[in-house]
Design a protein that fits this description.
This protein is 39% helix and 21% strand. The protein is an alpha+beta fold. 37% of the residues are buried.
Length: 168
């Protein structure tokens, strides 16, 4: 699946629990979330329709997804969330490679988990956001993601928290 994204030159990166695993913050994953900087139709056209299920946005997610049950993979097209201040786009930025897989930004996923924790009222999401914040405080955030997030309509408290991060 990732080979198809590579071949088609669709920017993509491992995120969520896979990113936490790659950073040494978790020891297992339930599924593999990959963000892709392309619209859902562009991604879907690269795979046989029988391989995936399409999911649209909901009250929290402003993005669309393709779920590949057989591979336990979800491709997230133009990762984004609805917030009271507008749609927050979470950039797909490759910050490292792990086992040959492009890995996304800890900073981007800190923001995503913080927004998810609020939307879902989820302690699990809060814990993952806290793990990433601790990692970012120790290692710094990638400058590309910091610049991208600075222009997003983040909730005030989250905007302040992101502004406090130092660049790696």
């Amino acid at each position: 699946m990732l080979a198809v994204l590579e071949r088609e030159r669709l920017p993509h990166a491992l995120g969520a629990s896979g990113l936490l695993l790659a950073l040494g913050l978790l020891d297992h994953v339930n599924d593999w979330d990959v963000t892709v900087e392309a619209d859902i139709d562009t991604i879907a056209a690269r795979f046989p329709p029988a391989q995936f299920t399409r999911h649209g946005n909901d009250a929290g997610h402003a993005d669309h997804k393709l779920s590949f049950a057989a591979a336990n993979v979800e491709l997230i097209a133009r990762f984004a969330f609805f917030t009271p201040r507008g749609v927050v786009h979470i950039p797909t930025v490759v910050t490292r490679h792990w086992n040959g897989i492009p890995v996304g930004s800890a900073c981007a996923w800190y923001v995503a988990y913080t927004l998810l924790a609020e939307y879902e009222n989820s302690e699990k999401r809060r814990t993952r956001a806290a793990l990433l914040r601790e990692w970012l405080d120790e290692n710094g955030a990638d400058a590309t993601t910091l610049r991208a997030l600075a222009s997003e309509p983040l909730p005030d408290a989250l905007a302040r928290a992101v502004a406090e991060l130092r660049s790696a």
